[in-house]
From TrEMBL:
Membrane spanning residue stretches: 40-62, 68-90, 121-142, 154-174, 181-201, 235-258
Residue ranges of domain ABC-2 type transporter transmembrane in the record: 29-229
Membrane topology per record: Multi-pass membrane protein
A GO CC term assigned to this protein in UniProt: ATP-binding cassette (ABC) transporter complex
Source organism: Occultella aeris
Name this protein carries in UniProt: ABC-2 type transporter
Highest taxon above the source species: Bacteria
Compartments reported by the entry: Membrane
GO molecular function: ABC-type transporter activity
Keywords recorded for this protein, A-Z: Antibiotic resistance, Membrane, Transmembrane, Transmembrane helix
Primary localization: membrane
Gene Ontology BP, a term: response to antibiotic
């Protein structure tokens, strides 16, 4: 007589694998733990925007003493902080992961790419929000920056939304380049976009030609939309279309880079 296939007892609940949400949270937890094992990566991301606030905004009484200017300055540096987090996390971070043998194994598992990708996005958003805490504390204590609590919450959500194009740009860089090249490209992209987008020097101080050029950049569009939420100052008319257009372009580049990487490594 052939051996019978083992079956669960009658009335027992069949065992199933983790849900999609469970897998996403598991990958997010793994990404967070992996990142904090290198404390300088977290500390640097937390400190740089806050130090910029301390060195360039707080000593300037014309800005720090004016509620409108001080609040806008906090918004600009918050935009830079999220840009930096997304570009480094999804640019150099993804490129470094691709160099590890374990990455190739994980990408062959039957769960597919979605849980890991969404888990990484969730972890990146968490680090982006954490990076805003010291910046907000310095702005509240040492300048006249002010906003109602509801506005602060809305601005925190808004800065993640306007940062999405840079998340996609980071993925495009991370899946296209080696880890060494990705770090250099991220740095080469981040600081020019931040300066030309009015994140270090207010765009209102730009010469007319630079102001016109700046309005075509995603960093300027995101900055103006965020400041509109924080202060009520209206963004320029094309800010939202510009941000959406760059977001679509960077998303297309990220998809192409991922498919190219899949084709080269797994076909």
């Amino acid at each position: 007589m052939s051996t019978a296939t083992a079956q669960a007892p009658i009335g027992a609940t069949p065992r199933t694998g983790p849900s999609l949400l469970g897998l996403i949270l598991l990958h997010a937890k793994f990404s967070v733990l992996e990142t904090i094992r290198t404390p300088i990566a977290v500390v640097g991301n937390l400190l740089f925007p806050t130090l910029a606030m301390l060195f360039f905004v707080v000593p300037n009484s014309a800005v720090a003493g004016n509620p409108l200017f001080a609040t806008a300055a906090v918004g600009q540096l918050a935009m830079f902080s999220v840009m930096s987090t997304f570009l480094f996390t999804f640019g150099s971070g993804v490129a470094e992961d691709r160099a590890l043998p374990f990455d190739g194994y994980v990408r062959t598992l039957p769960a597919g790419a979605a849980p890991r990708m969404l888990g990484r996005v969730l972890a990146g958003c968490l680090f982006a929000l954490v990076s805003l805490i010291p910046l907000g504390v310095v702005g509240a204590l040492l300048t006249e920056a002010t906003a109602p609590p509801a506005t602060v919450v809305l601005a925190a959500l808004m800065v993640l939304v306007v940062g999405l194009p840079f998340l996609m740009l980071g993925l495009a860089i991370g899946y296209r380049m080696s880890s060494k090249a990705a770090i250099a490209v991220v740095q080469a992209v981040l600081f020019p976009l931040a300066f030309a987008g009015g994140l270090f020097l207010p765009a209102e101080m730009f010469p007319s030609w630079l102001n016109t050029l700046s309005q075509a950049l995603p960093s300027r569009a995101g900055r103006d939309l965020l400041i509109q939420v924080l202060t009520g100052q209206p963004a320029y008319a094309l800010a939202l279309p510009v941000l959406i257009a760059w977001g679509l372009l960077f998303t297309a580049l990220a998809v192409l880079a991922y498919r190219r990487d899949e084709g080269r490594r797994f076909n």
